[in-house]
Structure formats: structure tokens, C-alpha cells
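Problem: given the chain below (265 residues), write out its structure.
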Amino acid sequence: MEISGIHLISFSPCGHTLEYGRQIAFTFGQCIPQAGYEEANVTPLAAQDKKQFFSPANLVLLCAPVYGGRVPLPAVARFANLTARETPAVILVTYGNRAFDDALLELTAIAKNQGFLPVGAAACVAEHTLAADCASGRPNEADVESARNFAREIAGILASDAFRGQPGLQVPGNPDLRPYTPTPLPQQVNSNCVLCGQCWTNCPTGAIRPGFPGEVDSSACIACMGCINICPAGARIPGQEFLAAVQDRIRPLCMTPRKNEYFTI
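Solution.
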């Protein structure tokens, strides 16, 4: 069946996952020029009730970062709103150079449960959100080219339509899934704040009280660093003791460069 629409669905608080997703989607567009393109950012809390249906003529790219070896809980909830009917899909997770653990398997299982037919999956290295010197500068040119080559391979698989008769996509991970316990990010707001609303509007869990950027619900915060990165005034300051403790713990596990990994049906 001919693909008539390419859809990029991304949960990407800091933009690294979205960057990879766009490179893959752009290449799909080159390989499938007749297909239209739509992009949906499901990161903000406002997207939590957004429901979408996809047909067999769509190609959907589902993207999320890895938090503690798992798919972030808000992303799981967003993807649960998607419904498909034998829709080919590509799964993408990004991680900060330590390991993607069970996240790729988890997101692939979510896709299958929602009616998608995963034909390919990617685990790609991106700059660590809490320790920027881990995988600093990634994705780099080599990462982008490898992602584009992966997309070209997927386009070839789709063109044959033979994937519909193939066994399901196999990716690494433990089906029991490792425990995931999000840790809140200690932070302060300084006098540079102009009450632009970017932080509370884009927070994936609604942890920041609208109109009161200094009030953060620690029980809802998942330390995604989205509010820190999006603040145009540099007014949000993460807790330095917290960051130092995290960095000391993860740096020994993240400093050896890892390559992106790709899987096809």
C-alpha cells in the first residue's frame, strides 16, 4: 500500500529527541515524496488529551527520550491516546550515552498495543540533559547521517510492502521492565524572570503553577530540564548540589562514546 502521510509524534522536553526525529522524517519525505507531512509535539501537558487515529496508509514515527532506562511516564500516557490500524511505525528513543535499557522495548510494545506495526527502531545517543559533557555535541554529523541511512532502509522495506507478512520487530530489553522512579529537580527562579509563561506552558506534567514560576510541585516534576532549557531569560537555575551528585554518579558510566543502534523487521 502506498504511504500517503508521514507523522512525527514526539515527546521531547529539551529538543534532542525531536532533532533526531526530524532528520529521520525529512529523509522519509525525500524517499516518499508523494506523502504529506505532519508533526505533533506531545510534550506539553495541554497535549495529554490529544487523540489521533492512523490508517494503514500512514507512516508514524514515535519518539521519546530515555529516563532511568524507561520511557517517561507522561510520554507513555500521551502515546496511549494514539490508535492505529495496521499502521507502519518507526520507534525512536534517545539516551545520554549510558544505556537505553528497556526503553526501546517498552515503546515498541506500546506501539504494538495501540495497533501499530513497528518496522524499525532506533536507539540514538544525544547530549545528556543533566550532564552536558556526557555525549556533548551529539547528535553530530555522523549521527545524523546514520539516522538518515536508517530511514532510507526503512523506506525500502515499506516500498516492498513485504513487512506485513514478516514476524514482529525484535528489539533488546527486559519485558519485566526495570523500576522507574522519577526524581524531582531542585530549582530556583531569579529576578531575570519576565513571566513569559514558557516554563509552565511547556512543562509535561503541569508541575509549575501558572503565573507563579517559582512554585514547583516536586511530586510531579520528572527532572526533564525542559523548563530550564526553554527559559528565554535564563531565570531558572537548577540545584547545583543535585546536579553535581547526579553527574558524579553517571559520568563514569557515560564517558565512553557509544554508537547509535538500529533495528529493522
